[in-house]
Amino acid sequence: MEENITKWNGFPGVFQSEGQLATCNLNPGEHVYGEKLVEDRGREYRLWNPRRSKLAAAILNGLEIFPFHDSSKILYLGASTGTTPSHISDIVSDGLIYSVESSPRMMRKLVDLSQIRSNLIPILDDASKPRNYLHLVEKVDIIYADVAQPNQTDIFMDNMRLFIKEGGQGFLMIKARSIDVTRDPDEIYKKEESRLKAAGFRVLEKIDLEPYEKDHMAFVCEISF
Ligand SMILES: C[S@@+](CC[C@H](N)C(=O)[O-])C[C@H]1O[C@@H](n2cnc3c(N)ncnc32)[C@H](O)[C@@H]1O
Questions:
Q1: Domain residue spans in the chain?
Q2: Poorest-confidence range of 105-119, 170-184, 202-216?
Q3: Beta-carbon neighbour count of residue 203 at 10 Å?
Q4: CATH of domain 6-47
Q5: What does each C-alpha distance from 109 to 28, 47, 101 come to in angstroms?
Q6: Sign (positive/negative) of CA torsion 66, 154, 192, 195?
Q7: pLDDT at 224 over 90
Q8: Interior CA angle at 157 toward 222 and 89, to 5°?
Q9: If pLDDT is split at 50, 70 and 90, which confidence band does 1 have?
Q10: Closest ligand 1 atom number to CA of residue 146
Q11: pLDDT at position 90, please?
C-alpha cells in the first residue's frame, strides 16, 4: 500500500504516516507481529503500534530524549518475542541489540527473529542476574528495561551499573501493577523515582503511557558518574 511517509520530530529512523508511527523495514516483505506494511518512494515501512510497544507509546506521548541512532548499541531486558526490539532493530540498522529474555517459550520466537535480523542478539537469561551475561555483553549506549516484575527498578539499576557507557541513557518502563496492585500508581512512581535518585540516578524524563498502556510510566535516566 502506497502512503506518504515523513520523519517524526527529528528522531533518527522514526517516521510517521498520517499520525501513525513507522520504522523502515530491515526485512522488506516480512511482518514481525502482524503489523501493517506500507510503501513510499520505493522503501517499505512497518507501522509501529503504541498498544503493542511502550516505546512507541512514549514517543506519541511526547518523549523528548531519543538517543537511538543507526549505530547504537543497546541492552534490552525483557525482549519477549521481539515486538519492540524489532522496531529498534530497524532504527539501529548498523548497531546491536543484546536482547535478554528469561522465558524459553518467548526465546524460541526471538531466536527465529535474530536469524533474519543480524543486529539482534538473543540471550536466554535472568536479567536479575546480570553477571551471568557479563562475558557476552559489552558496554552499551542505551539500556531498555521492560520486565514487568516487582523488582523491575532494581533489575534496571543493577544492569545500568554494569553495562551503561558514561553519558548513556536508560529507559525503564514501570508497570505499577507488577509492584503492587493495591496501591495508587502515582505513589508507586514517586517511590520508585526516589529510590532511583537515592541510588545516584538522574531522572531526565517521565512519560505516562496512557491511553496506550494503563498504569505504566516510562522513566529516562542517567547515572551520575
Ligand atoms: C512486558 S513483556 C516485554 C515486552 C517487550 N519488551 C516488547 O515491548 O516487545 C515482559 C517480558 O519480560 C520477561 N521477563 C520477566 N522477568 C524477566 C527476567 N528476570 N529476566 C529476563 N526477562 C524477564 C517476560 O518473560 C516477558 O517476556
A1: 6-47, 54-223
A2: 170-184
A3: 15
A4: 3.30.200.20
A5: 19, 20, 11
A6: negative
A7: no
A8: 70
A9: low
A10: 6
A11: 98
Report if pTM > 0.85: yes
Helix (H, G, I), strand (E, B) or coil at 76: strand
One-letter amino acid for residue 56 of the chain: A
Q: Distance (Å, rounded) from C-alpha 74 to C-alpha 87? A: 13
Residues 61 and 24 sit within 8 Å (Cβ to Cβ): no
Give the Å distance between the CA of 79 and the centre of ligand 1. 5
Q: What's the CATH code, domain 54-223?
A: 3.40.50.150
- Residue 83 in contact with ligand 1 by CB distance below 6 A: yes
By C-alpha distance, which of 52, 59, 131, 140 is closest to 98? 140
Ligand 1 pocket member 95 (CB < 6 A) = no
Atom 16 of ligand 1 has which residue's CA nearest to it?
147
Ligand 1 centroid from CA 167, angstroms? 25
Alpha carbons 160 and 59: distance in angstroms, whole number = 22
- Ligand 1 mean position to 125 CA, how many Å? 11
Place of cell 526516589: 194
Atom of ligand 1 nearest to the CA of 85: 9
Q: Enumerate helices (H) and strands (E) in the chain, giving the number of each.
A: 6, 12
Does the CB atom of residue 154 touch ligand 1 within 6 A? no
User: Which range (59-63, 113-117, 185-189) has the least confidence?
Assistant: 185-189
* SS3 per residue for 67-128: CCCCCCEEEEECCCCCHHHHHHHHHCCCCEEEEEECCHHHHHHHHHHHHHCCCEEEEECCCC
Q: Is 47 helix (H, G, I), strand (E, B) or coil?
A: strand
Between the CA of 172 and the centroid of ligand 1 the distance, in Å, is 12
